Amino acid sequence: MGAAPVEPSDQEPAGRNGPQRARPHSLTAQVVDFIEELCVGPDATPGGRLPAEKELAERFGVSRVVLREAMKTLEAKGLVHRRQGKPAVIASPNALPVENFIALSVLRDRRALMEFTEIRKALEVHGARLAAQRIAGPEEEHTREHIARARRAVADMRADPLDVPTRLRTDVQFHQALAAASGNGSLTQMLDALEQSLAQSREQSHRRFLATAEDPAASADEHDVVLEAVLTGDPARAVAAMEHHLEVTLHEIQTRPEPDRADPPDTAQA
């Protein structure tokens, strides 16, 4: 695929009465646009190699410095995966831009933690609905593979309920398995993006639970209730169980003490 050389300058010349003004599309942004077309075109496939940096720079008539800045932008957008000493490859569809947005939002505004937890609840409730439908339908066999992973996660959580790293790992595994059981890959990726950005809050929730709960294994029981509701094949029952489970999480976040003003913003989620 050919490409016309991009504009040779990022900025208009400085005037006597003011600073330089950026053009609507900088040199780097133009290169990003061109390479993005290569990544999403009809012939593009995940894992496919892009031309080498030297070839791309020559094709677009830009320096290697500009080309590398463009590639950094494309990598941050989740469109390419760069490898040391090798041509970049087209990335598989992913939610990296969403993950970056969530992480930045939570850092800037503590209220965003609650908002994204509400979004997580909406996605997981719908995922539980879909999983219940699939367990009662023709895709039951494939769905049960994920249900088995969720069951193992609950068993591991119950076996060592006082160990925070174990609780965190098994909690994440449980929710990831149920999301996979929904059969909706995009929903799974969105939840993964939320999890990556809000992981610290999950840890805080578990630590607060252990500090107050009479029975540390009670959280494993709560997950079992959700799992059994999905296994009934009744979407309404699965929805009710997941809603109740995540309402507990929302309440815990709502009742957390305000952080000390001298402390960095809270980035956690349950």
Automatic annotation (TrEMBL):
Residues 250-264 have a biased composition (Basic and acidic residues). It comes from Streptomonospora salina. It comes from the Bacteria. GO terms for molecular function: DNA binding; DNA-binding transcription factor activity. This is GntR family transcriptional repressor for pyruvate dehydrogenase complex. Residues 25-93 form the HTH gntR-type domain. The keyword Protein biosynthesis does not apply. Keywords: DNA-binding, Pyruvate, Transcription, Transcription regulation. Transmembrane segments: none annotated. Residues 1-24, 250-270 are annotated as: Disordered. InterPro entries: GntR_C (IPR011711), TF_FadR/GntR_C (IPR008920), Tscrpt_reg_HTH_GntR (IPR000524), WH-like_DNA-bd_sf (IPR036388), WH_DNA-bd_sf (IPR036390). CDD domains: WHTH_GntR.
